[in-house]
Specification:
The complex is a heterodimer of chains A (232) and B (600). Chain A is α+β, with helices and mostly antiparallel strands and 232 residues long. Chain A is built from eight helices and twelve strands. Chain B has five domains: 55 residues, no CATH class; 90 residues, Glutaredoxin (3-Layer(aba) Sandwich), CATH 3.40.30; 201 residues, 3-Layer(aba) Sandwich (Rossmann fold), CATH 3.40.50; 76 residues, Roll (Ubiquitin-like (UB roll)); 85 residues, Up-down Bundle (de novo design (two linked rop proteins)), CATH 1.20.1440. Classes of the chains: A alpha+beta (232), B alpha/beta (600). Bound molecules: flavin mononucleotide, iron/sulfur cluster (2 copies) and FE2/S2 (inorganic) cluster (FES).
């Protein structure tokens, strides 16, 4: 057990333990694989598809694929970077991401990836969909127009062992994240803050406090996304 | 209501994993799943209401609102439209006085659209309270509506039964099996039920797997994975319990051959399941049956009971000590993606049918996280004949890489639509001749997820190494508007059926559709065609499962094979044509001030 295995990521040899997800192995070795739905320590969703890497010519998501001995993984190749940029753009047009008016600006991982990929304007036409907001519970404000359905909240926010957030519907237009209003009303302020913090975008906000740290002084305002891994 | 709901949940031992069955039974009892029932389920299974709705809202046939004493689900897939379903829809609307998507005020009739129901060879067709009505005509619609108004039982309105076993008293359906080659060379061969199983249990489990391996039997559900290898992986996974699942979800538009195998020779499929169960050392087998085939359920249950009585199923099968294997039927509730094997497993566990991330593969960790083999109906049926006749006999049929026969579901613009068992290696031209198709513009091979090919490729053959198909072959005549009548319908199909998990499958499909519509509506440029193509390519690259990876195929393969049709839509040499329509943009505001848009 716990024997070390070797994988190669973009030509760099990485030693790790069997079973670790590729994205985490990469991180340990100073390689940033862009991601949006990944959350270390919880069951992978594999839903944003941004972390797709190539293993033996096959695309696999780095957040959900365990490293195996001898794997040769390619991540930083034009074909994948191009696809990642396209996915980021898809997310921008599929929702309503008006960054200057969003409390999450500067802390938003989608916005930060937009910068990383130097997206000036999405190549796809804006869809300006109208999706609802839910402000029925005490501390949570949920703006579905910004939700990228990464399922982080669905997977991790529980109250009394039950899911507070859940998917609803199927198919491109109908699918959305639903809040269980009864349960959400029981969340403490700290739990609501936790929900806001795990949301990569500004879809879950905590009510009653905004712009506590000014725009310009936020996480990705200071250092671009991934730099904390790449510059280690 | 609460008591009844609690009783239903109790029947499933308060097991969350049986949420599908619980919801199905509740809906059968109340004709919908009302808020009060959701509350009771949530309370008793200790989950949030949102969590219950999470599963419920995934499936097309679950509903929280009453859908009428008579609920009509009319197929709106491509071949249905080709065969005149729109006139039928209009007739229903005229007779009943409400539009599709709604229920009459008195709650008598609800009209709804639904994706392909597996009756492409007898369209237009609808399910009414689960009972199939095929070859609908306007006069038949009038008769049906009169029946609704008179309060008749749906079953009594069926009239004349269809061919073959459809007329059996356990089915009594008007569906036709349309078996066009009664004496096909493998599956359609007559045999004595139980004789293959007797042979199998006389050799070791390993020997059964070895026979499958050397027969080169490849999966008939689409992916073509070698069946013997799959069984061996499962056996070697070293789980406590292994499961065997037969995939009868058959949701690919244009496919209906599994329906015929289930109707005409269910014993053969079940026997194949028992043999597979023996080989992989499973105790439990599950037949996952799509909701659209609910009308076959009682019949299939009865066949299973007969097999139990004959010692072909249950404890100590054929008196072999330690060989216990039983089969239960799991109903689906309307979701094409549940045909994907890991989504199917999720659904069997009472969840949304979202495909899992792989690895792990089902053979490593499947149903209840135990090693699980999922095979198609046709694959498992074929197993029986391989055991009976030998691997070499089987290999001698078909081509080198594609041993055996394929059961094709052929529909569309041809004289004799139906189910055909053919040897692998038959060319599309031969196939077209066989079904009486002249004047052919295109053939949709393997349904929307496959490829749309034109006459220049009709000399290609049906085989894994050439044109692979799960069985759907749709013939599209010369008079059809390929892009409008076929491609657009398929694009919308994938949008509706995406489980929504992957961002590109969920959202890029919508973008592609809008771009496609831009071209169809005459606002397109040559650049739009190229963009449509290059954006479509991302789908293959980025998505998790076969649905998303192939969802752009209707567009991609028609651009490849029918590019002139796209170019004919382009009306200008300009690089950019604005879609912006000023009159439309000010329409709403003009309405408020009582003006007619006139801004030019
Ligand atoms: C979206 C999607 C739908 C599918 N639908 C079916 C189906 O209805 N029936 C089926 O047997 N296989 C279906 N498959 C293929 C299954 O995932 C799986 O490969 C197959 O059931 C394995 O059986 P086989 O090896 O015997 O073909 C589908 C795959 C995808 C991606
Ligand atoms: S609300 Fe936030 S965390 Fe939840 S799915 Fe949407 S984007 Fe992800
Ligand atoms: S590709 Fe589409 S259907 Fe398949 S898992 Fe992803 S979102 Fe679901
Ligand atoms: S981070 Fe892997 S798919 Fe989203």
């Amino acid at each position: 057990m716990n024997d070390k295995i070797k994988v190669t990521i973009d030509g760099i040899e990485c030693w790790t333990e069997e079973g670790k997800y590729i994205i985490d192995v990469a991180k340990e070795n100073g390689i940033y694989i862009p991601s949006l739905c990944h959350m270390e320590g919880i069951k992978p969703a594999g839903s944003c598809r941004i972390c797709n890497v190539q293993i033996n010519g096959r695309n696999m998501t780095a957040c959900s694929t365990p490293a195996a001995d001898g794997m040769n993984i390619e991540s930083n190749i034009p074909e994948l970077e191009e696809m990642r940029k396209a996915i980021v753009e898809v997310m921008f047009v599929a929702g309503n991401h008006f960054c200057p008016a969003c409390e999450k600006s500067g802390n938003c991982e989608l916005q930060a990836l937009g910068y990383r990929y130097q997206m000036m304007v999405p190549r796809f036409p804006y869809e300006f969909p109208e999706k609802g907001v839910n402000a029925d519970s005490k501390y949570i404000y949920h703006d579905r127009n910004r939700c990228i359905i990464c399922k982080r909240c669905v997977r991790s926010i529980m109250k009394d062992g039950k899911h507070v957030f859940a998917l609803n519907g199927r198919g491109g237009e109908k699918l959305h994240v639903e809040i269980d209003t009864d349960l959400a009303s029981q969340l403490t302020e700290a739990e609501a803050q936790e929900a806001m913090d795990i949301c990569p975008v500004g879809a879950i906000l905590k009510k009653e406090r905004g712009y506590y740290s000014p725009i310009g002084e936020r996480k990705f305002d200071k250092a671009p996304i991934g730099s904390e891994i790449e510059n280690k | 209501m609460k008591d009844k709901v609690q009783n239903i949940i109790g029947e499933y031992q308060n097991d969350k994993n049986r949420l599908m069955d619980i919801l199905i039974d509740i809906q059968a009892e109340f004709k919908c799943i009302p808020a009060e029932a959701i509350e009771t389920i949530a309370g008793q299974l200790i989950m949030s209401k949102a969590d219950v709705r999470q599963t419920l809202s995934f499936y097309h046939f679950f509903t929280t609102e009453p859908t009428g004493k008579y609920t009509v689900y009319l197929n709106d897939s491509v071949v249905a439209e080709m065969m005149g379903r729109n006139e039928i829809a209009k007739a229903f609307e005229n007779e009943i006085g409400v539009k599709f998507g709604s229920v009459t005020d008195d709650g008598l009739v609800g009209l709804f659209n639904t994706a392909d129901i597996g009756m492409n060879d007898q369209e237009p067709a609808a399910l009414i309270n689960g009972v199939p009505f095929t070859n609908l005509t306007i006069s038949k619609v009038k008769e049906l509506v009169a029946g609704f108004k008179a309060g008749r039982e749906v079953k009594d309105m069926v009239g004349k039964c269809g061919d073959g076993m459809n007329a059996d008293e356990r089915i009594m359906s008007m569906v036709n099996s349309n078996c066009q080659r009664k004496h096909g060379s493998i599956l359609c061969l007559e045999y004595e039920v139980g004789s293959a199983l007797k042979r199998a249990v006389n050799i070791t489990r390993e020997a059964v797997i070895e026979t499958m391996r050397s027969s080169n039997l490849r999966g008939r559900g689409g992916a073509g994975f070698p069946a013997g290898l799959k069984w061996e992986f499962c056996r070697k996974s070293g789980g406590d319990i292994n499961y065997l699942v037969c995939n009868a979800d058959e949701g690919e538009p244009g496919t209906f051959k599994d329906r015929v195998l289930l109707t005409e020779m269910p014993e053969q499929m079940f026997e194949g399941m028992v043999i597979a169960g023996y080989a992989i050392d499973a105790d439990e087998g599950v037949l996952y049956l799509r909701a659209e085939y609910y009308y076959l359920k009682a019949y299939l249950e009865d066949v299973l009971q007969k097999m139990r009585n004959d010692n072909l199923l249950g404890d100590k099968i054929l008196d072999v000590e330690g060989f216990n294997f039983d089969i239960r039927i799991q109903m689906g509730a309307g979701a094409y993606v549940c045909g994907e094997e890991s989504a199917l497993i999720e659904s069997m566990e009472g969840k949304r049918g979202e495909p899992r991330n792989r690895p792990p593969f089902p053979v490593q960790s499947g149903y209840h996280n135990e090693p699980t083999v999922v095979n198609n109906v046709e694959t498992l049926s074929t197993v029986v004949k391989i055991i009976l006749h030998s691997a070499d006999w089987f290999k001698a049929i078909g081509t080198r890489e594609s041993a055996g026969t394929k059961v094709l579901s052929i529909s569309g613009d041809c004289k004799n639509p139906g189910v055909y068992e053919v040897e692998y290696g038959i060319s599309v031209n031969e196939m077209l001749e066989m079904v009486g198709a002249t004047s052919v513009q295109a053939v949709q091979v393997a349904g929307p997820s496959g490829a749309c090919i034109g006459p220049d490729k009709f000399n290609q053959t049906i085989a894994f190494e050439d044109l692979a198909t799960g069985g759907a072959m749709i013939v599209i005549g010369k008079d059809r508007d390929l892009l409008k009548e076929v491609v657009l319908n398929y694009i919308s199909f994938f949008i509706d059926e995406s489980c929504g998990s992957c961002a590109p499958c969920r959202s890029l499909t919508l973008i592609l559709k809008n771009k496609f519509l831009k071209l169809l509506n005459g606002y397109g440029t040559m650049k739009d065609i190229d963009e449509l193509y290059s954006w479509g390519k991302y789908m293959k690259q980025a998505n998790r499962c076969g649905l998303g990876q192939t969802a752009a195929n209707p567009i991609l393969t028609t651009i490849e094979n029918f590019r002139p049709l796209y170019e004919a839509l382009v009306k200008t040499d300009d690089e950019f044509v604005s879609e912006f329509n000023m009159d439309k943009a000010v329409e709403a505001s003009c309405k408020y001030v009582d003006r007619i848009p006139n801004v030019h």
